[in-house]
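If you are new to this repository, start here. Below is one unmodified record pulled from the training split, so you can see the exact layout before writing a loader.
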Amino acid sequence: MRFRLTPRETSFYDMFAASADNIVTGSKLLMELLGADPSARAEIAERMRAAEHAGDDATHAIFHQLNSSFITPFDREDIYKLASTLDDIMDFMEEAVDLVVLYQIEQLPKGVEQQIEVLSRAAELTAEAMPNLRTMSNLTEYWIEVNRLENQADQIHRKLLAHLFNGKYDAMEVMKLKQIVDSLEEAADAFEHVANTVETIAVKES
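And here is the target side for that same chain:
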């Protein structure tokens, strides 16, 4: 790590950790949705919406701190990108839950549980990694594993699409379910974007 003679604003580390912890909360709500009766899903969606709003607040706090800090722990553009991509994850997860409720989906297609399991694992890894930004240590395994999980999510997504287009669903149902599984896939992509940003930061700071 480069030696610095100037002090750095360290509150960013806590903010990134809080944002990632909130994503874990979102992933748990996704898991809860899987096993919930359709009548209970609206209440889960409300809690997910609250978590998404908390994520927005965390992101805005990072942006505010960025705009008011003269010295930052790493490049400003990387701070902005990391905050934005963490926020994207919550947005996509909340979108998926909201669509399940709005479309009044009775039963999610087989394979969605695998998508959510991947997201849950990626959320845990991301939350574990954020505190390590302070020292830029023990991060390599994190971004390697998240990239592996994203590849796994791609495969699950392709199988889900093949299942949806096999002729067993009517066209309107296919459109609804595809939007949901696409939102979950975009969340997996966003986890990879976070991991790639962390890798970029670590390389610059090494």
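Two things worth knowing about this chain: The CA atoms of residues 129 and 139 lie 6 Å apart. Helices lie at 11-35, 41-68, 76-102, 112-129, 140-164, 171-205.
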